[in-house]
Amino acid sequence: MKRVGMFVWNTFTNDARVLRECTALAEAGYQVDLYCLNDGTLPEVERHPSGFQILRIDRTPPFDNILRRIGKRNPFTLMIGAGLLLLFPWLIPLLVLLYLVQKSRFVRYALYNSLGIVRMTRAARKHPYDIMHANDLNTLPQAIFAARGAKIIYDSHEVQTDRTGYGKGQGKLERHLLRFVDQTMVENATRADYHTSLYGKRPAVLHNYPFYQETVPKARPLHQELGIAEGEPILLYQGGIQEGRGLNRLIEAMPFIERGTLVFIGDGKIKTELQQSADQSPERERIRFVDKVPLDQLPSYTAAATVGFQVLQNVCFNHYSASSNKLFEYMAALVPVVAADLPEIRRVVETEGVGLLVNVESPKEIAVAVNQIVEEDGLRQAMKEQTKQARRKYNWDKEKHHLLDVYREVTM
């Protein structure tokens, strides 16, 4: 039995793609250990029902309690610190470091991440693996340092060289580390072409499609739970509340949308800012927010929607080239979409006839599309019928053999 050490830089509580990959590998007979992060509230080790093991790594420094007390300027701690300095002057550099860690977000971030990388690598090196599988660039060093002769698969979920919030250093690091990689996977053909143009070697393509379910998810009673009138259309965005996803444009579109309540499901960096924008909207009574929900419950929320939004803004190549798992999640729940006119999204929406494409920088154009789907029963029903066919095509059961092909190739 081949052993796989897989790495992901999150707590593995809402990572649908990694869940699908681990499940497929376990079903195919691979022994999979998934190394992820621990936020202090989750089990360090657990066995997933799908047959793989989860090992969570704590990034907290050993002196975390001291850091917290320094931050609070606890008098007792300060007295002890002064006494220690008198007795042991050589402690001064350490206390200066602790002070910088407490005061500087950058230093604290670097320290915690460095500890996470070291501890994750050390934990994986304790076991012999045949294959190391790194999900995204932030776990590729761990896979390389822990490999000990194992084959390395680099599973790039994002375009590391051109994405929001990241500098050019990402691309330089990726180019350097690719020398140690046996096979790379990217999400779609557009990204594969881009990767080939940068590095001269074409990666495998593994689409991020959802699990196939024979039956359509049963809709959750969202109208009742959110206090929305029965019969009122639910206009749904689900996913990360992040920059560049067109979310403010949705709020700006609401005054032009004739019927419907806009519902955001998820969390992220700009959620507070987005809620403030919603509070200032003349249509604030028709805008609701729901916190991030467990993966196994999300399809029931999706199925309650009348329209689903995928309105990525073309702010970087990562967005321009995205396929977007939420697009396929909407289709799996038979929900028509209003979507950004970007290459991979356009290919699916136009080919399958499951929604309308818009210029996401135009709130009025978004509103026109929503009004058309909501008001034209024949159009909406036709789109729902098209999703019934599309969901049989764009699903993990049809896609997972590409993952298994990559594994067979690297172990031949």
Q: Please, how many helices?
A: 18
Radius of gyration: 24 Å
Percent of residues in β-strands: 15-25%
Average pLDDT metric: 89
Summarize the biggest pleated sheet: 8 strands, mixed
Task: Provide the structure class.
Answer: alpha/beta
The outline comes out as globular
Q: What level of helicity do the residues show?
A: 40-55%
Low-pLDDT segments, ≥5 res: none
What does this structure look like?
This protein has 412 residues and is of the alpha/beta class. 46% of the residues lie in helices and 16% in strands. It has 18 helices and 14 strands. The chain has helices spanning 16-27, 64-72, 75-87, 92-103, 105-125, 140-146, 169-177, 189-199, 222-226, 247-253, 271-280, 298-302, 317-320, 325-332, 343-352, 363-375, 377-393, 396-410, and strands at residues 3-7, 31-38, 45-47, 53-58, 131-135, 151-155, 183-186, 204-205, 234-238, 261-265, 287-290, 307-310, 337-340, 355-358. The strands form 2 sheets. It has an 8-stranded mixed beta sheet with strand order 3-4-2-1-5-6-7-8, sandwiched between helices. Helix 8 (189-199) links the parallel strand 7 (183-186) and strand 8 (204-205). Helix 1 (16-27) crosses helix 18, helix 2 (64-72) crosses helix 4 and helix 10 (247-253) packs across helix 16 (363-375). It is globular. The two termini are 14 Å apart. The model has no long low-confidence stretch (mean pLDDT 89).
